[in-house]
Known about the structure:
Distance between the termini of chain B: 44 Å
Low-confidence stretches of chain B: none
CATH class of the largest domain in chain A: Mainly Alpha
CATH superfamily of the largest domain in chain A: MetI-like
Mean pLDDT of chain B: 88
Structural class of chain B: mainly alpha
Radius of gyration of chain A: 25 Å
CATH topology of the largest domain in chain B: MetI-like fold
Number of strands of chain B: 0
Radius of gyration of chain B: 24 Å
CATH topology of the largest domain in chain A: MetI-like fold
CATH class of the largest domain in chain B: Mainly Alpha
Structural class of chain A: mainly alpha
CATH superfamily of the largest domain in chain B: MetI-like
Oligomer: heterodimer
Number of domains of chain A: 2
Distance between the termini of chain A: 46 Å
Number of helices of chain A: 13
Low-confidence stretches of chain A: 1-7
Order of helices and strands of chain B: HHHHHHHHHHHHHHH
Shape of chain A: globular
Mean pLDDT of chain A: 86
Strand content of chain A: under 5%
Largest sheet of chain A: 2 strands, antiparallel
Helix content of chain B: over 70%
Number of helices of chain B: 15
Number of strands of chain A: 2
CATH architecture of the largest domain in chain A: Orthogonal Bundle
Strand content of chain B: under 5%
Largest interface: A-B, 93 and 93 residues
Amino acid sequence: MSVAPTADAGRSRRTGSLLAFAYLLPALVVFGIFIFWPLVKSVMLSVQGTDILGNPSGFVGFVNYSKLFTDDGFLQVLWVTFAFTVLTVLPSIAIALFLALLLQSRIRGVKFFRTAFALPFAFSVATASVIFGVLFNPASGVLNGLLSYIGVGKVNWLTNPDLALWSVSGATVWMQIGYNLLVISAGLGALPDDVLEAARLDGASGFRLQRSIVMPLITPQLFFLVVVGTIHSLQSFGQIKILTVGGPEGRTTTLVYSIYEQAFANNNSNYGYASAQAMVLLLIVLVITALQFGVLERRVFYR
Amino acid sequence: MRSSSRVGTALTYVALAVMFVIVLFPVYYGLVGSFMGERDTNSFPPALWPVHGVFPENYSNALGIIPLGNQYLTSVLQTLVITIGQLVTSVLAAYAFVFLPLRWRGFWFAVFLSTMMIPYESIIIPNYLLISELGLKDTIAGLTLPFLATGFGTFLMRQSFLSFPTELRDAARVDGAGHLRFLVSILVPLSRPSLAALGIWSALSAWNMYFWPLLATEDPRHQTIQIGISQLKTSDGDSPGMVLAGVMLALFPTLLLVIFGQRFIVRGLTAGAVK
Lengths: 303, 275
């Protein structure tokens, strides 16, 4: 039973492969029904019109796509998405990096701080957004309360068109710190002791050690965070839905929020146009992923 | 030399303390605010700690105003089903990739990899339509079915299986163990740390999900706790203390996971990378 006769080797390889396929099958069924088929259907929806009940109303070619480029609202959506990504990705990495370097110090209590700073990671987008909603409250929120002590009048954090995106971004930066910190700390923890020791013996210390030795060694982690963070920010939805509902004047309507608005808000059921926007999102994410694998990755220092 | 390092240490503590206050303030206010009455939260400038008494009844009020008990149960069930589902499908698929002769291995590998590159939001409309047509809105099935398998989980388990020598399988075969028995009684117990990592990641992301449960449920009694608390905030006239109490209830399980499971979370950070 344990040794297959050689004459049957070919057949047993085929049945072996069938067995392997059976092990893959449960996952493949889920992927097929809930990822690949919906992907095909998204493309199909995006080239169809939609009647008022939300049913596809026949092939319309690239009408939904050409609408994207002529719709001023959608140009604003792209701009807001870009601004939101810039305002969230880099600041959250910079803050996490600063914290991670502080936590590298050999001082007492580091363990306590390490756990404390990871706590934002436990927050869901809903829990964090609701808390920030309370803090941002213009009439009784703590932020305006603290500002009043230095004589600043009440700020409309979420309803001022020039400020809302900054406020939502600030809350998002906070949500991302915990994850970024864990990644950078893991990278710092894996630094080769001998390299650091050699650098110290050569007289490098403090800022010099960080800049010339530590930073180049953790570029893979930082690069990973830029890519993952960008994709994550592009997918942000909950904080916008909970804090600003895309407003004021659409100034916080990002691509994903726009998809939601077209398809689901106020029973819009504009599935065709929303699907065209969804394809734009897919394209952007695929391009970023391709960049990660192709161009940029070679420039990063790997051990 | 010594004094300069002492200054350095002092500066580090100052920086840590400042960052601690800034970063942890929302956590602090969420917790303390959940015990404050309206006299404290609605005054201006608002109190930073309970000046006019402590109000634990915020919690019972939160439980009373929305069907939070039901929603909690829904979240627990949803999290359990997704976590167990992902563990099972990931372990099986990873086993096929590592220990079984698989035709077109590269192709299937690419299929699993590609699932990680498709942003869920770009296919959420057809998924919503499908779940609606199947009549699965407001059900645990509707909340969980799309998430029962992940490329991430498969690659995490594959990484773990790859670390075992192939002799392990040969030895088991000599002892007469078939594939399933080898997997269940030898590999799975040996892979406990990776299983814990995957389980914690699955549970965290399932519990914290927002977009999909928002679409897949309508009836408040069948919504998850995340949707429940976000609507607490928008329904008019809710006292901030009670809203924050709801938040704390939703936060409690994940807070425990992050505090006590950090070791496993870090393991999952890098293990999923395909290299």
